[in-house]
Hints:
Strand content: 15-25%
Shape: globular
Distance between the termini: 34 Å
Bound molecules: adenosine-5'-monophosphate-propyl ester
Low-confidence stretches: none
CATH class of the domain at 517-643: Alpha Beta
CATH architecture of the domain at 517-643: 2-Layer Sandwich
Helix content: 25-40%
Largest sheet: 7 strands, mixed
Radius of gyration: 24 Å
CATH superfamily of the domain at 517-643: ANL, C-terminal domain
Structural class: alpha/beta
Strand order of the largest sheet: 6-5-18-17-19-20-21
Number of strands: 35
Number of helices: 21
CATH topology of the domain at 517-643: GMP Synthetase, Chain A, domain 3
Amino acid sequence: MTDSLARPVPDSFRQKANVDTETYERLYRQSLDDSDSFWAEQAERLVHWFTPWETVQSGSLAGGDARWFEGARLNVAYNCLDRHLESRGDQTALIWEAEADDEPARTFTYQELREAVCRLATALRGIGVKRGDRVCLYLPMIPEAVISMLACARMGAIHSVVFSGSSPDALRERIDDFDATVVITADQAMRYGRKVPVKANVDIACETLESVKRVVVVQRGGDEVNWQDGRDLWFHDLLQGASADSPVAEMEAEDPLFILYTSGATTTPKGVMHTCGGYLVYSALTHEVILDHHAGDVHWCIAELGWITGHTYTVYGPLANGGTTLLYEGALSARNPKRAWQIVEKHRVNTLYTTPTLIRTLMAQGDAHVTEHDRSSLRLLGSVGEPINPEAWSWFHRVVGEERCPVVDTWWQTETGGIMLSPLPAAESIKPGASARPFFGIDVALLDEQGAIVTGEGSGRLVINRSWPGQMRTVYGDHDRFVSTYLTEFPGHYASGDAAQRDGEGEYRITGHVDDRLLVEGVSLETSDIENALTADPRIAEAAVVSCTRDNGSQGVYAWVTPMLGEPTDEELADALKARVLNGLGAVAVPDVIQWAPALPRTRSGKILRRILKKIANGEIDDLGDTTTLADANVVDSLVESSRGN
Ligand code: PRX
C-alpha cells in the first residue's frame, strides 16, 4: 500500500470527532492495562442498569466461558427507548423508506416507537410467549421488524432474525435448530421491485415443524395469503387493544439477547448467540467512536436486518445512543440507481455505512446519479463485510463524500458482535482498505501457520487474545462446536479465520478469509490482491478470483470479472487486465481464464460466494452445494451459461 493513496481527514471533521488520536491511544492502553476500570466506566456511561454488576469480567476467552457484568440487570429495549423519553421523546428514532420512491416514508419518534414495542410485547405475552422463549423474525425490512426485535428484548424473549430472502428449507433448518414457538412474518416482501411470498415460505417451512404454535403476519403487500386458523394471526389484529403498559423484563447481563445464524456457505449454519449486557455496551461504544455518533445524527446503515450489521448498527447501537436510524426496505441495484442518493438528500443523512459490494454496484452506475443529489449532510462513510478495493474506496471518498468525509473500513464478524478493527475516523489520514487499528479492549495478534506470534511488520492469521464484551458466548445448543470452531485451532486465542497484514506503524489490512488464498506454482497468492489489480482498470466494476485445476492437474487462477455498464467484453480488455496483473503481481498471478460475469453470486450480506464460483470454474455444475444463502439464485444460471466453452 503506497502512501500516495492516503487521504487526509479534514480538520473540520477532526475537531468535532468524538475521539482524537491522543485520546484513542490513552484509552486503548487503559482498555488493555486496566481493562476492568475501562469497561466499568464505559458501561456506566452508556447503559442504564437496574442492578449493578458484581464482577466486570469473569471466566475467559480461552476457556470458552467469558462473562461480562455478572450480577447486573438491565433491559436492552429499555435502554434503546424508555431511557431516552425524557430528553428526546419527540425526536425521530426510526425513519423507514420503502423500495418504491412514491410510497410515503414512515417515521417513529422515540415515544411512538416505545409505544409500538410495548403493545407488541403485551400481545406476545397474550399468545403465550414467555421470557427465554425463542421467536423467529422472518420479515422484510419494515418498521415492524425493528419493533419485533425490541418487543422480544423488552419481554426477555430471544429473537432470531432470518433474512426474508432465505428459502423455506433454510428457514426450516433455523427454526428447527432453536425451537421457535412463534414466527413473525409478513404477507409479502418487496425486493428488486418484485413481491416475495414470505408467508407462503413460512407455511412450507412449518409443514414438518412441531414447535411453531403461532404465526403472526404483518400486512405489507395486501395480496391474499393462505391462512391456517388457530395458528395464524394478523399483526394488526393482535395489536388491537393491546396495552402499551407493558412491564420491562429485568434481564441478567448474561441472558441471551438473540441468536443469529451465520450464512453457512460451507457447513450447516451456526446459531451465534449474543447476550444482553456486554453486547449492548460494545454496540453503543463502537457506534459512538467509530461511526462517530453525535446527538441529532441521522445514521443509515444499508444492511439487512438479518445480518449482524443490521442488528448492531441499524438497531441496537444507534438506538442505545439516542440516534435517528434509517431503515430501507428494498435492494439497491442498477434498477434504481438514484434511490440511495435521494434518501441521503431527503433525510439529511450524516453517517452512511454499507458494503463494498453495494459501493461497487452504485459506482458502476456512474457519478451523475450521485452528484445530482445534495450530499452536504454526510459527515462519515463506512464500509463493512469484505475487503474493499482501492478504486471503490476512492470513489466513495471522492464522489460520494466529496473528500470531506473519512471512510472507515471496519473489520468484524457476526461472532464479534461489533467492530474490531477500523481506522480511527479522526486520524490524520486514512489509506484505502488499510489503516485499521484494534478497537478498545481488542488484543489482536498475527500468527504464522505453526501458531507462533508474528511480531512487527508481517502477515499471518488474525487472532484475538482475550475476551471483549461483544463476543459471542456460544453456538446455540452446541457449546462444543463453539469451542472447536473458534478456540481450538490456536489454543489460548480466538481464531477469526481471516488473514491480515500489519505495517511498520502497527496498522492492519485484512487480506481476506484464509480459505480465499490460492497456491499457484508454489506461490501463495491473496485473491484480494489479484482482484484489486483487475478492478484498478476503470472499465471494471467487480472481480472475484478462484482457483481452477489445469489440464495437468496443477492449480491456476480463474477470474470472474464484471465490467462497468456498457463496456465491451472483448479480447482487448482481457489482455489489458492480464497485463495489469502481470505488471503488478508477476506472471504467476496472471489469470488462466478471464470469464465475463454479468453479476456475481452473493449472500444476503453481499459476500461473494466463491465456493460456487469455484465449482462453476471447475465444471462441477451438477453439484453446487447449498445455494439457499444466495441473494439472487438466477445469477448462478447466467454464470453457468457464460462459463460454457471454457
Ligand atoms: O472475512 C471477513 C469478512 O467478513 C467476515 C465476517 O462475515 P460476517 O460474519 O457475515 O460479517 C459480519 C459483519 C462484518 C470476516 O471474517 N469481512 C468483514 N469485514 C471486512 C471483511 N473482510 C475485509 N475487510 C473488512 N472490512
